[in-house]
Design a protein that fits this description.
Shape: globular
CATH superfamily: Glycosidases
Distance between the termini: 20 Å
Number of strands: 13
Number of helices: 17
């Protein structure tokens, strides 16, 4: 059988990857040992509650800021909403089947806060707890380890003031502690919040995400502070309600910087840029304080910090998880900060999303710089992937551009892992096409195609590629 026919077989017969598994593999040429990942490397996929679940008014779920935002005309492309999304609330067993067919051993999911506490706090909703119990149990039955994110942007709308209110950080801690207590007998890995910079800045400074505000510098800095405070208080609450096996971290889209040339001065400049440019987020979390340079730059707009806040924010972590997509390039210079950030050019390659510049080397430098700056006990890549045009041809998606992207980034992640940095696992974004926030359903990040009219899931070529990578534990 011709190789093309072999690949196509994996997408027919109902579109199951199992069909591809049943097809005899063509003999592969010997591969060099240096393409291997370390033994025990964790391979997984990632999703988020609002992006896949749907069922926004079922079983006691409360409204969220994204429900309100997406129903406001003009906020989301094509006025799309997450009302149905991938309908994973009802189809979670089918989605677990997709994971099992890929051969992944881990799945990063997020909990919808408003399913557990419809008003953000108060009395818990038993049906919400039961749903996530079913999902976790289904994953474990399939031999898949759940990694749970407590907050992936879908904030209960009933919380007064949202992230502008300090009380929201306190409410998050209560929710996180309660939920960890319900799941920690089966879940060992918890991430507090996802992408601090997005739910604070994009939602409150740029107005592109929920709640769609454009606040001034002082108000934005206070929102940022409440975000990192929620993380820190969440760490403490999860530990208080967890057990000896419980591990806690966060998933952060740190601004990563790549030395324009790998020479000592540019390498040092890149490391310095990571620390300084993330002063309000990961740097504060890892160091338990705001940099003097950040506070001086903000002046009167600096956040108001109460006693005990920074100790909570700097609560020790068991791991750090990184969402790695686009690079920033820096060079050393003679400025007081010691570096200059280079602009992206019109000719810079990018994927379907305008912001998604392609620079695979950011994968290596993200892991190396975070490791050398803060020496975390363990690192995971909680998200990496790309949008692509994904045309369906005779029921098949030949997304070779996504494979190109993933192969090149994973080459750099592998470099970091074999050099001894504590990279333990990788979660591909995403298991399937979903509601892509303000871009609606127009941009697809999945390795499974979703027909949103019928909810049919179909593995793309990238799913077959990822399955083979996992099987071999090496680049293919």
């Amino acid at each position: 059988m011709h190789r093309r026919d072999v690949m196509k077989a994996g997408f027919t017969a109902g579109g199951a990857l199992a069909a591809a598994a049943a097809t005899p593999a063509l003999a592969a040429p010997p591969r060099p040992a240096d393409l291997k990942f370390p033994d025990g490397f964790v391979w997984g996929c990632a999703t988020a509650s609002y992006q896949i679940e749907g069922a926004v008014a079922e079983d006691g779920r409360g409204a969220t800021n994204w429900d309100v935002f997406s129903h406001t005309p003009g906020r989301v492309a094509n006025n799309d909403t997450g009302d149905v999304a991938c309908d994973s609330y009802h189809r979670y067993r089918e989605d677990i089947g997709l994971l099992k067919a890929l051969g992944v051993k881990a799945y990063r999911l997020s909990i919808a806060w408003s399913r557990i506490f419809p008003d953000g706090r108060g009395s818990p909703n038993p049906k919400g707890v039961d749903y996530y119990n079913r999902v976790v149990d289904g994953l474990l039955e399939a031999g898949i380890t759940p990694y749970v994110t407590m907050f992936h942007w879908d904030l209960p709308q009933a919380l007064p003031g949202g992230w502008q209110s300090r009380d929201t950080a306190l409410a998050f801690a209560d929710y996180a502690g309660f939920t960890a207590g319900k799941l920690c007998d089966r879940v060992d890995h918890f991430m507090t919040v996802n992408e601090l910079r997005c739910f604070t800045d994009l939602g409150h400074q740029e107005g592109k995400h929920a709640p769609g505000l454009r606040l001034g510098p002082a108000a934005v800095n206070q929102v940022r502070h409440h975000g990192v405070l929620a993380h820190g208080l969440g760490v403490q609450a999860i530990r208080a309600h967890g057990n000896a096996k419980t591990q806690v971290g966060l998933a952060d889209n740190t601004n990563f910087y790549v030395p324009v040339i790998e020479t000592p001065e540019h390498i040092e400049a890149a490391k310095h840029a990571v620390r300084r440019e993330n002063a309000m987020f990961l740097t504060a979390v890892m160091e338990g304080e705001y940099l003097d340079s950040y506070l001086a730059e903000q002046g009167a707009a600096a956040p108001k910090v109460e006693p005990g806040d920074m100790a909570a924010i700097g609560s020790p972590l068991d791991f750090v998880a990184l969402n790695v997509y686009a690079p920033n390039y820096v060079r050393a210079d003679d400025s007081p900060q010691g570096y200059a950030i280079l602009p992206h050019l019109k000719s810079s390659p990018r994927m379907a999303s305008p912001w998604l510049y392609v620079g695979p080397e950011v994968a290596y430098w993200a892991v190396r710089n975070v490791s050398e700056l803060w020496k975390p006990k363990a690192l995971y890549i909680s998200e990496n992937g790309c949008s692509a045009d994904d045309p369906v041809t005779n029921g098949v998606v030949y997304d070779s551009d996504r494979i190109m992207y993933l192969r090149n980034y994973l080459t750099e992640f592998r470099r970091a892992a074999v050099e001894g940095y504590p990279l333990k696992g990788y979660f591909l974004w995403s298991l399937m096409d979903n509601f892509e926030w303000a871009d609606g359903y127009g941009l697809r990040f999945g390795i499974h195609h979703v027909d949103f009219a019928t909810q049919k899931r179909t593995p793309k070529l990238s799913a077959a590629w990822y399955r083979e990578l996992i099987r071999r534990n090496e680049l293919v």
